[in-house]
Design brief:
Helix content is 56%, strand content 0%. By secondary structure, it is mainly α. The chain starts with a helix and ends with a helix.
């Protein structure tokens, strides 16, 4: 898939975003995990 196809999929399914990662080297995994955790933490703390 190219960047446009991925972005269309992200938008269609209302995903946060997408993060390039590598299961083999682990590259980007820590960053993606932290972004997701930060978003969940923010959402939980801002619930009324």
């Amino acid at each position: 898939m190219n960047h446009t196809e991925i972005q269309d999929l992200v938008n269609k399914h209302n995903f946060l975003d997408y993060y390039l990662t590598s299961a083999k080297s682990g590259k980007g995994v820590f960053n993606a995990f932290n972004i997701i955790i930060d978003k969940l933490y923010f959402d939980l703390n801002n619930k009324v």
